Amino acid sequence: MFDPKSLKAPEFIDHQEVLDSLAYADENKNNRAVLDEIIAKARQHKGLSHREASVLLATDDPEINAQIFELAREIKKAYYGNRIVLFAPLYLSNYCINGCVYCPYHLKNKHIPRKKLTQEEIEREVIALQDMGHKRLAIESGEDPKNNPIEYILESIKTIYNIKHKNGAIRRVNVNIAATTVENYKKLKDAGIGTYILFQETYHRESYEKLHPTGPKHDYCYHTEAMDRAMDGGIDDVGLGVLFGLELYRYEFCALLMHAEHLEAVHGVGPHTISFPRVKRADDIDPNAFDNGISDDTFIKIIACARVAVPYTGMIISTRESKEVRERALEVGISQISGASRTSVGGYVDEEPEDESSAQFDVSDKRTLDQVISWLMQLGYVPSFCTACYREGRTGDRFMALCKSNQILNCCHPNALMTLKEYLQDYASPITKLIGDKLIQNELGTIPNQKIRSFVEKNLVKIENGERDFRI
Ligand code: SF4
Ligand code: SF4
Predict the structure, then answer these.
(1) Is the CB of 142 under 6 A from ligand 1?
(2) pTM for the full model?
């Protein structure tokens, strides 16, 4: 029985409710009256239910599709302006006891090199990331209580926050590790993490159990209920995601929104972010082995429909996707991207020969961070290295209230300009610096509040004179 308030996965992700919603979407995908009503609701920028959004995703009416894309652009502009937040993944260890059939780190893969970074190696990786200009990391680790216990993760977070090299600093560490206990989530909270990220992979229980045949991750309910435990452990900001390509995308999209509704219903705050990964090639993984791959056009439509359905949620795309796909995705909803990522353990310091790669997946966008920053600015975006919110205590419902009322923009835009300035001073190539300084001058004029504008102007001068870390 579908119940968004239930704490049991089969009830808040009720299989029958997903099927009924998809049937409703099929029945109404060409029903102009229903479509117009949903579009009118979406125009209020307050989001849509999983059923309504599923109808939009199912429609092939060209006029409605054009309206969905236009709305997605409009909502993105209203909530996020033109800033794009940058981050990088940091792989700590690829030891894993799970059997996920789409990931080369699965236990049965005996030829992939297994690596676990020591604290000294983490320091070297982090310095390499700082030297590129990164301020925000997402740490990744396989599930292995012996090799990667929670103590190792906590120690690594401490190491990362403590590394101060030249003007560099990692100011926000997001964590993507296996589902765990409330007690461990409390420890992560105390370690000062930003967002706890856990991809569901697929919400379809039967497929989930087949795709995860062995290891603790096989337990669908334990995995699906992880965000509730994380929130019970005091973590305010959680990040959802499915791996598109494993199951039928319309099923995943609908269930993903049901998960968001569940978090809102139980904890009063929806997901902080949603990530949009697709299955990619990797050591011993062929994406063609999965029947449910989706085209670029479908992928972009999913992103646009999600933007319309959850206007206040940050949306993330990684370097799994090409420059071209990322460009289209940015336009219709993505607010956060990774740049210059290495998806292998130790990859920022050591270039691995291809046949000895420990990478989790192949990267499509291989550009340097400087190239990504320059590209974003030439597209009219303001790259941002901002990490202000959780450092200022703006997390969970406090953050969502600001976000839903659009007030967060008063922080995001100035913070984006100040952190971009830091990047330009410390890490940019001369041409990127030139483009960036000009962009900042133009953007300053768009800050409506005179007090905030002069606060930013003063700090920009201070940054030129060597001071760092200003924020609102
Ligand atoms: S997806 Fe995660 S849990 Fe599964 S094999 Fe890969 S690293 Fe392990
Ligand atoms: S002000 Fe907050 S929401 Fe805005 S970019 Fe910075 S951390 Fe993100």
Answers:
(1) yes
(2) 0.97
